[in-house]
Structures are given as structure tokens and as C-alpha cells.
Design brief:
Layout (H helix, E strand, L loop, with lengths): L4 E3 L4 H11 L3 E4 L5 H7 L6 E4 L10 E4 L2 E5 L4 H6 L1 H6 L1 H8 L4 H6 L2 H7 L7 H6 L3 E6 L2 E6 L4 E3 L2 E2 L6 E8 L5 E8 L10 E8 L4 E6 L6 E5 L11 H11 L14 H25 L1
Bound molecules: flavin-adenine dinucleotide.
């Protein structure tokens, strides 16, 4: 393994100062389920690794604050998936967190790390997009709230600026009833990255939010306000052109070894239609 310095700051200010001083030569370490693999295979070669687990502000915690559910950057998937407030208000996020990797991975992997790693296949990204979540970042110029849709650029690249560290993910508590579901397609049962990962949410004023990943350089959010997708009585023929518009941004890589572009695009349509039906049913069930 490539040699690197290791720092374990106790305060956020110290971490920000280290990040600012080292720039792209520094990498933050949370659960390490992405980073340690990259350190081992040499695809990440930082000069310094900054372990964030001793920073008080990042300690695992989920709490409500001013109409938002705040999930601190140290919170792992197991706790996201089992939290009663997440399950009640953001069930599709709980479902997504519950399928990440294996029990061992979920006990280490943080929600913030999943987002910051910016993999197009990140399972929590579609539900965070559907629920209109924001990434809270602390940096040399203070605090920024970045809508998740403005956060992803491409695999491994986000809009975080030099010196910024993610402290939390915030989700606005829903003002309207919504039925939502997370679905994904993997090559096999057990732990595997998704060939398609998708979330669909339908709310009581018939707005449909559909987000999908693993079919292009970054996860995509599309919104249908026509009411046609949300209408249980609308025919498949009426829905088809709207679905096609929503899937127009999918551009799977032909170089992926996980699935061909044709398969991913076909599965995107199957899962999209299936998730829409489930979201409508869940909305009806309250
Ligand atoms: C066997 C296996 C199976 C997996 N299966 C899945 C799966 O099914 N679905 C899925 O989505 N993912 C899967 N993953 C990927 C991984 O578990 C997730 O992406 C995880 O959530 C990353 O979180 P972490 O805390 O381990 O991040 P780390 O590995 O510690 O960090 C990941 C990246 O985020 C950066 N980072 C971490 N915290 C912060 C912060 N607070 N501020 C700014 N940057 C930060 C790091 O510098 C690094 O670049 C799997 C991984 C493994 C090894």
C-alpha cells in the first residue's frame, strides 16, 4: 500500500484547516468501506488521510431541527435503516440504506460517505433526490447547504470546495403525504452494486418524483407535474411518453462489466413502472 500520513483531528475547525492546507492531497476517512479499498488497490494515493471519527460534531446522531431531519455525517447505514423517524417520514431512504452491502458494511458505511463518494450506483442517492435532501458542508468560509441535486458531478467528483467537509445530510420533513419506494436491480442476491438503482415518490397533489442511478455518470432526478403518472386510472399509453422523457438522461457506460447498456435501459423501464405502481399504492394506503 502507498504510504500516507494519518491525522485524527478532534474538532471540525482542525479538520477544515488540514483539508484546506493539503487540498486534493488529503482524503477524509469515515467508515472506510470505499476509501480503504481504493488505498489498497492504489486508485487513491493521498499524502494524508484525515480520520473524522473523533470529531464531536460528526458523531452518529439523527435529530429533528426546524422542520428537518438531520442525519450527522458519522451516522451509519444500520442506524439510518432502523431509525423510526426515517422509517416513518422517509421510508424509501430506510429501504435503500438497508440494502447497502452486507450487515458488516452497513455497520461501518456512513450515509455521508455514500453521498461524498459520488458513485453513480450509490443506493441512497435516488431517495435523497426524491426527498429533496441537502448536504451540509463546513469549510473555511462557513456553512453551506447544497441541494443533493447540485452536489453530484460524476463518479468521485462533487461540488464540495477545497477545505469543505460534510457535517450532515438534511431532509425537509414532508409537508404533503407521499408514497415512495426504493428499488434496485443487481446481478445476484447478496451484496452487489446495483445495475439500476431507483426511487419513485408520488405525493397527494399528484407530483411524481423519479430518481435513478447506475445508468450514467451521476444520479438523475426527474419530476412530472402533469398528474398523468400519478393517476392510477391513466393508461400505459398515456404514461409511456412521460416515462420516455424522464429516462432520456440515462446513458449507461458500454465499458461496465456489470451489465450492458441495453440491459440497464430495459431494467430502468421495468423498475420505473413497478416503482410507480408501488408508490401510488403506498400513497393510497396513507
Ligand atoms: C463489499 C461492499 C459492498 C458495497 N455495497 C454497496 C451497495 O450495495 N450500495 C452502495 O450504495 N454502496 C455499496 N458499497 C459502497 C460503500 O459501502 C458506501 O459508499 C459507503 O456508504 C461509504 O461510506 P464510508 O463511511 O465507508 O465512506 P469512506 O470510505 O470513509 O469515504 C468515502 C468517500 O467519501 C469521502 N468522505 C467521507 N466522509 C466525508 C465527509 N464527512 N465529508 C466529505 N467527504 C467525506 C471520503 O474522503 C471518500 O472519498 C459497498 C462497499 C463494499 C466494500
Amino acid at each position: 500500500m502507498h504510504t500516507f500520513a494519518y491525522a485524527r483531528p478532534a474538532t471540525l475547525a482542525e479538520a477544515v484547516a488540514l483539508l484546506e492546507a493539503h487540498g486534493p492531497a488529503a482524503r477524509l476517512l469515515a467508515g472506510g468501506t470505499d476509501l480503504v479499498i481504493r488505498l489498497r488497490d492504489g486508485t487513491a494515493r493521498p499524502a494524508v488521510v484525515i480520520d473524522v471519527k473523533q470529531i464531536a460534531e460528526l458523531r452518529p446522531a439523527i435529530h429533528e431541527d426546524g422542520g428537518r431531519l438531520v442525519i450527522s455525517a458519522g451516522t451509519v447505514m444500520t442506524d439510518v435503516a432502523s431509525d423510526e423517524r426515517v422509517r416513518r417520514s422517509f421510508p424509501a431512504l430506510a429501504e435503500a440504506a438497508a440494502v447497502v452491502g452486507s450487515v458488516q458494511i452497513r455497520n461501518r458505511a456512513t450515509l455521508a460517505g455514500n453521498v461524498c463518494n459520488a458513485s453513480p450506483a450509490a443506493d441512497t442517492a435516488p431517495s435523497l433526490l426524491v426527498y429533496d435532501a441537502a448536504v451540509v458542508a463546513e469549510g473555511p468560509d462557513g456553512t453551506r447547504r447544497i441541494p443533493v441535486d447540485d452536489f453530484f458531478v460524476r463518479s468521485g467528483v462533487t461540488t464540495l470546495a477545497r477545505g469543505e467537509i460534510v457535517t450532515a445530510i438534511e431532509l425537509p420533513l414532508p409537508a404533503r403525504k407521499m408514497g415512495a419506494v426504493h428499488m434496485r436491480r443487481t446481478r445476484r442476491r447478496g451484496h452487489d452494486l446495483a445495475s439500476v438503482t431507483l426511487c419513485c415518490g408520488v405525493d397527494e397533489v399528484e407530483v411524481t418524483r423519479l430518481a435513478y442511478g447506475s445508468v450514467g455518470p451521476r444520479p438523475v432526478l426527474m419530476i412530472d407535474e402533469s398528474g398523468v403518472l400519478a393517476d392510477p386510472a391513466a393508461t400505459d399509453e398515456a404514461k409511456a411518453p412521460i416515462f420516455e422523457r424522464m429516462f432520456a438522461d440515462a446513458s449507461p457506460s458500454p465499458r461496465s462489466m456489470r451489465a450492458s447498456p441495453e440491459y440497464r435501459l430495459a431494467m430502468l423501464r421495468v423498475l420505473g413502472a413497478r416503482a410507480l405502481r408501488t408508490a401510488i399504492d403506498r400513497l393510497a394506503q396513507g
